[in-house]
Write a structure and sequence with these properties.
12 strands, alpha/beta, about 30% helix, single chain, 8 helices
Length: about 280
C-alpha cells in the first residue's frame, strides 16, 4: 500500500502539461445579486444588456462563455454566438448549459446532473407541503423542483467537444469523468457562486481544480460572483478574475486521452482501503 501511494505521489510530482491545439475563449464574470435574479427583481433583459456589453471585448470567431442561468428562452436569440452559456427554462423547469452557433441556434445541451437539495429540489415536497408553503410565503415565490439530467454527453461547437456541467456538478467527480470518457477535450463549468461568500467561493473553485487534475483537461469557469477564468490540466490557475464584472481572454488546450482515474474511477483507492482494513484486522 505504501509503495502504491509513493508511486502515485511520484507521478503527480513529475507530471508535465499536456500538448494540444490552442482554443481561445472569452470568459465572463458578472456581479448580479443572486436573490434578485431568482425573484426576477433583476429582469433577464437587464442581465442580457450587461453580458452583451462585456462580450464586446471578444476577438473575431472567439467563442464566449457565460455563467449559469445567464440566458432564458426570451433572451436566447440575442446571445452573441458562437459560445456556451447557462440556460434557465421554466416550462419545463430546467437548469441547462448549451452550445450556440454563430447563427444563434442551440447545437447541444446538458441538464444539471445533481440538483442542490432544498435549493433546486425539495425532498418530500407533497408530504411536507404545509411546511414548504410557509417558506414560500416568506420568500415571495413558489418552490419547485428542476428536472435533472438522465444522461451526460459533451457539447459540440465548431468541431470542439466541451465537457460542460452546471455549477454544483463540479462537486461530483463522476460528472467530469463521464464527459471525458465520452470525448470531452475541454471542461467548462458555468456557475453562480453569488449565494455565498468567502471560503464557500474558494472551496467551489478548488473542487473544480481537482476535476482538472483527475481528467487531465483544461477547465474554464464563467461565474456570477465567483472565480472566473481558466485552470490548466495540472490544476494550476492560468488567468483568473475574482472581483468585479469583466471578461478575460483565455487560451486553453484541447486534449485527448484518458487518465487512470478516468478509466477506473475510485476503484484503485477503494481496493487500497480494503487492503488496509484487511491488514488492520490481521
Amino acid at each position: 500500500v505504501t509503495l502504491a501511494w509513493l508511486a502515485a505521489l511520484a507521478y503527480g510530482i513529475t507530471r508535465v502539461p499536456g500538448s494540444g491545439p490552442v482554443q481561445p475563449l472569452l470568459v465572463l464574470r458578472t456581479n448580479f445579486d443572486s436573490f434578485g435574479r431568482a425573484t426576477r427583481q433583476l429582469t433577464p433583459e437587464e442581465q442580457l444588456a450587461v453580458q452583451r456589453q462585456l462580450s464586446a471585448a471578444r476577438a473575431p470567431a472567439e467563442p464566449v462563455v457565460w455563467s449559469e442561468t445567464a440566458l432564458t428562452p426570451q433572451t436566447l436569440p440575442a446571445f452573441p454566438g458562437p459560445g456556451l452559456s447557462g440556460l434557465r427554462t421554466f416550462q419545463p423547469d430546467q437548469n441547462a448549459v448549451v452550445s450556440i452557433d454563430a447563427a444563434g441556434r442551440v447545437v447541444d445541451r446538458n441538464l444539471k446532473a445533481r440538483l442542490v437539495p432544498f435549493g433546486e429540489y425539495f425532498p418530500l415536497y407533497q408530504a411536507l407541503r404545509p411546511v414548504y408553503r410557509v417558506i414560500e410565503h416568506a420568500i415571495g415565490f413558489e418552490l419547485g423542483s428542476l428536472t435533472p439530467a438522465r444522461q451526460l454527453r459533451p457539447l459540440t461547437l465548431n468541431g470542439v467537444t466541451y465537457g460542460a456541467y452546471v455549477c454544483y456538478d463540479s462537486v461530483f467527480p463522476w460528472v467530469a469523468r463521464q464527459l471525458v470518457r465520452r470525448g470531452a477535450q475541454v471542461l467548462v463549468n458555468p456557475s453562480n457562486d453569488g449565494w455565498y461568500e468567502g471560503w464557500g467561493v474558494q472551496q467551489h473553485f478548488m473542487m473544480g481544480r481537482v476535476r482538472a487534475i483527475e481528467t487531465r483537461r483544461w477547465l474554464v469557469r464563467s461565474v456570477n460572483s465567483g472565480v472566473a477564468g481558466a485552470v490548466d490540466d495540472l490544476g494550476q490557475p492560468v488567468r483568473l478574475l475574482s472581483q468585479g464584472a469583466g471578461a478575460v481572454h483565455v487560451e486553453v488546450r484541447r486534449l485527448h486521452g484518458q487518465t487512470l482515474y478516468t478509466r477506473l474511477g475510485d476503484l484503485p483507492a477503494l481496493l487500497l482501503s480494503v487492503l488496509l482494513l484487511l491488514y488492520a484486522a490481521r
